[in-house]
Amino acid sequence: MTYEAFNDFCLSLAATSYVVQWGDSHVWKVGGKVFAIGGWENAGKPAFTFKTSESDFLFLSEERGYRPAPYLASRGMKWIQLYDSSVVEDDELIYYLEESHRIVSLGLSKKRQKELGLNQI
């Protein structure tokens, strides 16, 4: 996935906002909380960082092309970085980005979720 495709996809999710920060990284937020980062790559390859469930964190930590996210995971947070996107299909990354958006949005207050039209049943 390219950064352009990453940005287009994140823009398509509900109640998102975008900012460039942390060394020119593409940072996506829902309700003001970060759910995805495009950047922090090594060797010129795109890298994508996202929040995961505990079980996905454990699973992806051992998968080829993924690793616990630099800085974030070392602080006990369940964030994963896809540092070699050539080993996965875009659909796989899209699934994890959607999950990250969902996990982060569920961490917002119920009032904030309602204001943003998120997680309404």
Q: Could you explain the architecture of this structure?
A:
With 121 residues, the protein is α+β, with helices and mostly antiparallel strands. The protein has one domain (3-111): Aspartate Aminotransferase, domain 1. It contains 4 helices and 6 strands, in the order H-E-E-E-E-H-E-E-H-H. The protein has helices at residues 3-12, 54-61, 90-106, 110-116, and strands spanning 16-21, 25-30, 33-38, 48-51, 66-68, 79-82. The protein has a 6-stranded antiparallel β-sheet with strand order 1-2-3-4-6-5. A hairpin with a 2-residue loop joins strand 2 and strand 3. The longest helix is centred in the last third of the chain and has 17 residues, at 90-106. It is globular. 27% of the residues are buried.
Quick tags:
single chain, 121 residues, alpha+beta, Aspartate Aminotransferase, domain 1, 6-stranded antiparallel β-sheet, 6 strands, 35% helix
Concise summary:
The chain is α+β, with helices and mostly antiparallel strands. It contains 4 helices and 6 strands.
